[in-house]
């Protein structure tokens, strides 16, 4: 008998939220959202819809997932990647670990979703479509011309095209046209349907991932075999090529909290202090004064501080890249 499984993808490092997010504790494990982490909130949110849980993460953070899920008394299958090989491989591992007719709800571990009724409606619709052999992606109604998200052009539940992260002008055009949704990176499908499509469109990924899975030790993947898997996203491997794709145009509020401007908006809404000029402090209760500055975010940690204008949040990844090139311990 088929069952519904929640697959949590938790391999990212959250480079755009440095210095809060580090390799040792990526953003999805930071308990700064009302005392909870995004990972915990993700697990709780889908508990009502799934009888099974699979976590696909890295050997660097699997202990953090275990710590949270054990505290929440959640039984789960732990798939531990030796090296990151992108989302096509990660999702394939979860599908290999499932029965062919099992319906998988795949979600990243670092998103904020608001609107329980709207979320349930979207999940129910997706599970029904997946049960009928479709691969479902969730598209979110955009609220602004966001350049940090990919977009889905749609007509009803039919996908017309997938679009990469646009520039500001193109993003505004998408909003004005009215038939574009933010690509949430959430999916729903039967395990066998996804694997059949992956095998058809990306047989090299399918074969190498299957070999690595078959040689895994209690969910722990071998590094040498993993390195043979081509690193490609599920979007490129399957979503943009399959004829079995449907989209659920969701009405719940959604953010991937992938940058400090989105964290700012969320914390502000939750009552976090902002001064009269829109300046915010994150990470310390020390008195901090902003002079001649507006919409500035001061991020404090024990080893590094970041000061940025809210509109330049996407540029934090450049700082991360510079530190990465310098082999800096500030990323650890």
How would you describe the overall organization of this protein?
The protein is of the alpha/beta class. 33% of the residues lie in helices and 23% in strands. It has eleven helices and 14 strands. Strands 1, 2, 3, 4, 6, 7, 8, 9 and 10 form a nine-stranded mixed beta sheet that branches. A three-stranded mixed beta sheet has the order 12-13-14, with no helix packed on it. β2, α2 and β3 form a beta-alpha-beta unit. α3 packs across α6 and α3 crosses α7. The longest helix is centred in the middle third of the chain and has 16 residues. The protein is globular. The protein starts with a strand and ends in a 7-residue tail after the last helix. The mean pLDDT is 94.
Summarize the structure.
Helix content is 33%, strand content 23%.
Major sheet details: 9 strands, mixed
**Overall pLDDT metric:** 94
Radius of gyration in whole Å, from Cα? 20 Å
- The span between the termini is 44 Å
DSSP helix fraction:
25-40%
**Shape descriptor:** globular
How much beta, percentage-wise? 15-25%
Order of helices and strands: EHEHEHEEHEEEHEHHHHEEHEEEH
Spans with pLDDT under 50 lasting ≥5 residues? Answer: none
Based on secondary structure, the structural category is: alpha/beta
Count every beta strand, where a strand is a DSSP E run of 2 or more residues: 14
How large is the count of helical segments?
A: 11
């Amino acid at each position: 008998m088929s069952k519904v499984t929640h697959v949590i993808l938790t391999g990212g490092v959250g480079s755009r939220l440095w210095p809060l997010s580090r390799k040792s504790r990526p953003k999805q494990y930071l308990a700064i959202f009302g005392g909870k982490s995004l990972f915990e909130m993700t697990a709780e949110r889908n508990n009502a819809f799934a009888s099974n849980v699979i976590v696909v993460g890295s050997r660097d953070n699997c202990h953090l997932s275990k710590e949270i899920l054990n505290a929440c008394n959640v039984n789960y299958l732990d798939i531990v990647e030796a090296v990151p090989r992108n989302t096509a491989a990660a999702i394939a591992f979860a599908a290999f670990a499932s029965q062919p007719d099992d319906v998988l709800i795949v979600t990243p571990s670092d998103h904020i979703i608001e609107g329980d009724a709207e979320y349930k409606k979207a999940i129910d619709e997706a599970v029904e479509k997946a049960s009928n052999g479709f691969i479902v992606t969730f598209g979110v109604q955009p609220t602004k011309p966001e350049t940090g998200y990919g977009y889905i052009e749609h007509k009803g539940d039919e996908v017309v095209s997938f679009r990469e992260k646009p520039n500001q002008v193109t993003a505004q055009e998408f909003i004005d046209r009215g038939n574009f949704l933010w690509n949430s990176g959430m999916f729903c499908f039967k395990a066998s349907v996804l694997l059949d499509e992956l095998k058809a469109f990306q047989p090299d990924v399918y074969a190498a991932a299957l070999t690595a899975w078959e040689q895994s030790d209690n969910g722990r993947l071998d590094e040498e075999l993993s390195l043979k898997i081509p690193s490609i996203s599920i979007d490129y491997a399957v979503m943009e090529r399959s004829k079995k794709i449907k989209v659920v145009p969701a009405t719940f509020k959604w953010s991937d909290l992938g940058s400090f401007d989105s964290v700012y908006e969320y914390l502000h809404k939750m009552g976090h202090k902002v001064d009269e000029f829109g300046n915010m402090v994150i990470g310390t209760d020390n008195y901090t004064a902003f002079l001649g500055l507006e919409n500035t975010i001061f991020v404090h940690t024990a080893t590094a501080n970041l000061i940025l204008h809210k509109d330049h949040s996407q540029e934090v990844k450049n700082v991360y890249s510079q530190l990465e090139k310098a082999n800096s311990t500030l990323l650890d």
